């Protein structure tokens, strides 16, 4: 029987990303993406909104790239798998759900003109990054 674990989210970074390294020197970054849903309340005709926060974990070139080019408020699209992680906090076991990034696209950033040579769409595919060492895992697609 086939199974599927895939999630796609597009949202804004909640704070500047920070790069850290695992003991084996693999770059890693954990970011929070805010997805804002807006609608007009039919009864009051008032604008309403709800914000959902998603925890995202990036490794390797993806982590380095997001930390280099993106800041709080910038827009990022992420596709990956949802994974749970358990930890203990003050004697209480907690569970957190994280998106393990497989693909990312930088949608918009305030600093785009000085940081990225070809900006319209930057796509990073984790499964392909290791096959393209000359590009260091970065794919730049020309847009209109």
UniProtKB/TrEMBL annotation:
InterPro entries: NA-bd_OB-fold (IPR012340), Primosome_PriB/ssb (IPR000424), ssDNA-bd (IPR011344). GO terms for biological process: DNA replication. Signal peptide: none annotated. Gene3D superfamilies: Nucleic acid-binding proteins. Transmembrane segments: none annotated. It holds the Pfam family SSB. One of its GO terms (cellular component) is nucleoid. It comes from the Bacteria. Keywords: DNA-binding. This is Single-stranded DNA-binding protein. It comes from Neisseria subflava. One of its GO terms (molecular function) is single-stranded DNA binding. The keyword Cell wall biogenesis/degradation does not apply. Homotetramer.
